[in-house]
Amino acid sequence: MRQRLITLVSLLVSAMFAMALLARIVSAQAGKAEPRRVTSDGHSTPIAWDSAGLLVARPGQLLGGRVANEWWRIAPADGSAQLISADAPSSAPARTITSAKKVFVVNGETLQPELWLADANAGNARLLLTGESEYFFAPALSPDGARFVFTRAPSGSETHAFSSIWLGDVASGDVKHLITEASSPVWSPDGNELAFEHRGDTYIGDWRLAIRDWNDSVASRQSPVASPQSLTPPATIRVVHMQGNYDFSQMATCRPPTLTVGTIITFPFEAYVSYVVPIESSPSNPPEQLKAQSLAARTYAWGRINPTASYDVSDWTDTQAMCDLRADSRSTAAVNATAGQYIAYGGSLISALYSAESGDPTRACPFGGGCNYLKAVDDPVSFGRTRNGHGGGMSQNGAYRWAQWYKWDYIQILTHYYSNVTIEGTTAFGGFVLPWNNGYVTSNRVRILGEASNGSALNIFARAQGLTTTQIATNTLLTSLDLTTVPDQPLGGFVVTGTISSTQASTLTLGIDRVPPTGTLTAPGFTLLPTVTLQLSATDSGSGFAGYGLSNHWIWEGEDKSPQYIFNGVGSMVTDSQALNGRALFASSGSSIIWFGPYTFDVPLGHPYRAYFRLKTNNVMTTSQIAKLDVVGDGVTPIGIKRVFGTDFRAANQYQEFFVDFNDVVSPTMGLEFRVDSEGALPADLYLDRVLVATYPVTSPLTANWTLSAPSGLPQIVIAKFSDNAGNVSADVTATVALSAPLHIYLPLLRR
Known about the structure:
752 residues; 49 strands; disordered N terminus; disordered C terminus
């Protein structure tokens, strides 16, 4: 009996070991294995791989007017390295691949590159993928011709680290994302592995495993040069030719294909800017977007002029791309129109980071450090867009949308994306920062903020229905206008014009709408199933109905948890008859507050939402910021943000709801948190009644299927919020539904 027990235990242990081994194999096949690093110098790019080993390129010594291009042979097994050439040619040795297929890239001027698959003779070509504000380059077939890989690099300054490698299947044409933050893939001779560059070093991984995203999603950046003592534009700039641009130029008209990697060329500074703009922004873009791109590119490059270094910038996305063969009269006109102009903060050049698609909100300080001018910015034209690049500073696609859809000028674009900056130059020019052009005023006062160069100031005029042309400010950049007696009016009825001396500088086309929309909500009073059908209707007499959102009573009443959600004990719970539950969080003028909470996971993941902050203040005359409102999921990084000023409130001592849009698509690590931050001393008293979360507004269908979340047997309040195109929000429109016990209890009865 004992022997049989020992045998049984032995078999059980063996089975458990086999299961563990199988689990490890399955886990590896599911993508649990990390690639291995085979170089550690921070400057290695793989260029070829054969039976002798892996060939990588590294920058070498400065030789006259270029940086030597070293070739090193790396042993894939242990990473041991041997110098093959101290000054090699640009291109890797050709390796013949027998295949009946050809993969090629077309990179047009619109920055919408195309990936094509064709027969070996380029016949029967078919389009596989179209990109947006990025570069496709260096597609490579596997040794057996069954697969291919290529690199996608986002446009923008210092975006190289955010490149990615994609894998395609020749037979099906399917293309999928393979490796994050990587570039320059090279196949192993047997086709089982890929070598690639990641943050300056070469890694090797098995492509058959779904290689995981890197844990650290923020790459290190190049350090900008200290701001020069003189703010006179430099006469020239030195540009080094990089391997990435060399690879790109083999399939695109960018730089001379024969240009050797490492070559340093000195360009006239403004000519260089004219070579950057048409590769970073399509020349067919609106002129104001091209001007914004000109200033961002000029300011970024200017800040990197370094006489003590061998060169100032590269021609690729580790700094910013340039193509001297792509000069275009439209982009050159934008460069010439803004010649010598730059972006400054506190009188010094900024490091003008920008990237293809920065999302909403943009990303604050994407590489860390103190970035007073790279704050997270509410960018509604980019809401729901997938971030492409580091996300800091100007969004190139967002700038296009502001210019194309809302007719923003370049000053408004730049001062929107770079916080608290000035646009400087040798001549007098200027424009408006706020309010947003082609938008609506929703309060009884409008805060008008201007921007002028060279110590100039704006003279500000306004006209509207019920308001004759009036000079409301002389030689000032910040003012407000009382609209209490001015009636609501459509877009275009309210116009603000600014002049510098007697020259018109900028014009804002606005509307006025202070009346929230109204709506109805009808729901069944009782249901057996958790999903019910809701009937809605909406009306708006002003800017037009913009949509409705629904909430399963997702409400945070911060005062019921104070002082848990009061940072440093500033603020208190007070009784307030105007608050919906009779209580509110309160802080007096002069306080510095951060209120936060409740770390909830109740809101279903994977959808866009709108958080409504119900606030009240006693001072609606101040043009100062009252609070920053935001939503975070990790305790730090905003996924939605808005800044509220005193003049945004319609009336003193009356509650008003301000919304923050957020896209809840990444599982929050700490739960959703809603924050109110004064960012300094409050200029007025502030009350927070509650935060309500509803789905992001949609206009249809007005008959909606809605899933309840309350436990069975309890009545649930469903709340609808209606919005108009001006940003006004309706009062709560509610319906109560009683959800019965779970359906499985009733099913046996129904089957009888």
